[in-house]
């Protein structure tokens, strides 16, 4: 089962936030002032001792310039101006990995390097997820793509949904829902994720990690295409409808929905053929 990751080294002390915000501001002004004195100076901000900031999985990786003067502390300030974490840098260390998780505040993060509690350089890095549904298939049409040990009932009643996170930070997928003209829409009272837990091999996952720059495959676990229903009809002349696939994430403002056209053709639901097609926004 996938588990969420809580933040470490986080502080809510208001006085400390004020001091850190002031430090970050002074550092930024100092760098800007130096650049402004020289008309021929490069327009890119001075990264100070930072060689690279990147996201790997659910972590922030801070790479320090091997040729720069040693630093003692890196403060990471989140988009609200609060201290996200403070990391001490031991002598000789040029790489630091910081736990990010999936419930962080999206936006621009500032990384401030300090020596003797004085800022000597800073840089910024945007950390923000961007999720989209890129594919939806019916298990009944693609049994070879279902999860291991899927039963025949699981295969013919569930969907395979592929999502892509093209943003700069990870997120957690907490719910997979189906609404509209499907035989078995997700009930409003259904509180679980509706995503099959491939780690445990049964039940609903708490949620599924969606790292940035990667595609993640989800398997429905609510049997939305169970062919016993009074919601839709299956007729020889084809019954048409519209349904929505919705993804809810650990970031409240990141909810993704896609519309599909669906056709049901056959003498009755148990013998029905189902065809789906993605609709343009």
Structural commentary:
It is built from two helices and 15 strands. The chain is mainly β and 281 residues long. The chain has a five-stranded antiparallel sheet with strand order 11-10-13-14-15, with no helix packed on it. Strands 4-3-6-7 form a four-stranded antiparallel sheet, with helices on one face. It is elongated. The two termini are 34 Å apart.
Characteristics:
Immunoglobulin-like; elongated; 5-stranded antiparallel beta sheet; mainly beta; 2 helices
| Topology-level CATH name of the largest domain | Immunoglobulin-like
Which secondary-structure class do the elements indicate? mainly beta
**Cα-based radius of gyration, to the nearest Å:** 25 Å
- Quick check: average pLDDT? 86
Number of strands: 15
Main sheet characteristics = 5 strands, antiparallel
Which strand-content bin applies to the residues? 35-45%
Low-confidence parts lasting 5 or more residues at pLDDT below 50? 1-38
Q: Give the C-level CATH assignment of the largest domain.
A: Mainly Beta
Shape: elongated
- Share in helix: 10-25%
**Tally of separate helices:** 2
Please report the distance between the alpha carbons of the first and last residues. 34 Å
Please give the CATH architecture of the largest domain.
Sandwich
Number of domains: 2
- Strand ordering within the main sheet: 11-10-13-14-15
């Amino acid at each position: 089962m996938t588990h969420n990751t809580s933040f470490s080294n986080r502080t809510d002390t208001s006085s400390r936030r004020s001091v850190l915000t002031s430090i970050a501001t002074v550092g930024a002004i100092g760098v800007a002032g130096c650049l402004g004195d020289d008309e021929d100076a490069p327009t890119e901000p001075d990264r100070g001792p930072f060689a690279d900031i990147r996201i790997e999985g659910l972590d922030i990786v801070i790479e320090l310039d091997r040729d720069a003067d040693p630093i003692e502390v890196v403060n990471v300030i989140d988009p609200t101006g609060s201290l996200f974490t403070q990391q001490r840098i031991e002598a000789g260390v040029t790489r630091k990995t910081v736990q990010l998780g999936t419930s962080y505040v999206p936006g621009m993060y500032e990384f401030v390097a300090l020596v003797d509690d004085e800022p000597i350089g800073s840089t910024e890095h945007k950390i923000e997820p961007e999720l989209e549904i890129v594919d939806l298939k019916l298990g009944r049409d693609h049994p070879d793509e279902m999860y291991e040990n899927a039963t025949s009932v699981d295969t013919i009643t569930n969907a395979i949904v592929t999502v892509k996170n093209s943003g700069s930070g990870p997120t957690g997928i907490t719910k997979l829902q189906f609404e509209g003209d499907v035989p078995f829409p997700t009930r409003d009272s259904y509180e679980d994720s509706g995503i099959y837990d491939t780690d445990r091999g049964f039940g609903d996952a708490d949620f599924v990690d969606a790292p940035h720059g990667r595609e993640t495959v989800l398997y429905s676990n609510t049997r939305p295409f169970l062919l016993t229903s009074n919601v839709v009809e299956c007729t020889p002349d084809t019954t048409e409808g519209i349904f929505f696939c919705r993804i809810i994430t650990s970031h409240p403002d990141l909810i993704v929905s896609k519309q599909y056209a669906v056709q049901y053709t056959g003498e009755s639901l148990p013998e029905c053929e189902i065809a789906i097609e993605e609709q343009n926004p």
